[in-house]
TrEMBL record:
It comes from Streptomyces coacervatus. It holds the Pfam family HipA_2. It comes from the Bacteria. This is HipA-like kinase domain-containing protein. Residues 12-240 form the HipA-like kinase domain. InterPro entries: HipA_2.
């Protein structure tokens, strides 16, 4: 289970983030990047962060540790900015936090180089979860002491916005032409051979078990949070086997 902490102080908004993530301090004295249930697409974005973040971690990628952050909306009362106050007020209860990587640099495809092997693994993973938010304009990759970390998996698994059409939507191809790592000749075949067999039903059950019940309740068409967990696992399991052949728009490494 994800560690649970309670927010004790709102430090500052992170200006680059479209969803207005904030930096908070918690009761374990940790500093976290916090994403709020009251923001934009709401809790589905947070579910996507947990499913993709925890899956990526288990496949060997570097992802900041995820925690749940309990929020008492009174924390927002003293905030001078209306936008921040509204966000905190509408996000009482369980939110998402991730370890703040201090000293991280935003990845710039023109300034850093990435091996074809690593590029292949990341592009393959993004194709698996249908990540549309790792473009060269907005890479959502951080560099820490020469190592790449994956962040921001909120815009993935488009099928979870329309469950009745999920199987059809999950069978579509993935256009990687704008991907931040497209220029590094990603070795997709090698990544697929290594990673696809590891995406098993057992692994996906472990990953989806990490989603807090509070974000799964009352989804139309599902009786229990566990039914919805299985619905998250299904398209990923189906996609893993064949997604390599469905990646388009990219010049593949050997
Ligand atoms: N764990 C972290 N450690 C350090 N900095 C972070 C971390 N997570 C996010 N950031 C910084 O905050 C910015 C916004 O975070 P993120 O991309 O997750 O938010 P978002 O609202 O989903 O953004 P987007 O505008 O891409 O949709 C990142 O670009 C990065 O600069
Ligand atoms: Mg981002």
């Amino acid at each position: 289970m994800l560690k649970e902490v309670i927010a004790t102080r709102y430090i500052t908004p992170l200006r680059e983030g479209g969803s207005l993530p904030g930096l908070v301090e918690a009761d374990d004295f940790g500093t976290y990047v916090m994403k709020f249930t009251g923001a934009g697409q709401g809790r589905k974005t947070l579910v996507a962060e947990v499913v993709c973040g925890e899956l990526a971690r288990r496949l060997g990628f570097r992802v900041p540790r995820l925690v749940t952050v309990g929020l008492d909306p009174v924390l927002g009362l003293g905030e001078p900015e209306q936008q921040v106050q509204d966000l905190l007020r509408s996000s009482g209860g369980t939110n998402l936090g991730m370890d703040f990587l201090s000293g991280a640099l935003g990845f710039d495809p023109l300034a850093f180089s990435v091996s074809p092997e690593e590029a292949g693994r990341i592009v393959w993973f993004d194709a698996l979860v249908n990540n549309v938010d790792r473009s060269w304009r907005n890479p959502n990759l951080l560099m820490v002491r020469g190592e790449l970390w994956l962040i921001d998996h909120g815009a993935t698994m488009i099928w979870h916005h329309n469950w009745p059409g999920a199987d059809t939507s999950a069978s579509r191809s993935y256009d990687a032409s704008d991907h931040a790592l497209a220029r590094f000749r990603p070795e997709l075949a090698r990544a697929a051979a290594e990673l696809a067999p590891r995406v098993t039903e057992e692994l996906l059950a472990e990953v989806t078990a990490e989603i807090p019940d509070a974000w799964l309740a009352d989804e139309p068409g599902f009786d229990t949070p566990d039914d919805l967990r299985r619905a998250y696992a299904r398209p990923l399991l189906a996609r893993a086997a064949a997604v390599h052949e469905r990646i388009t728009g990219i010049e593949e490494g050997k």
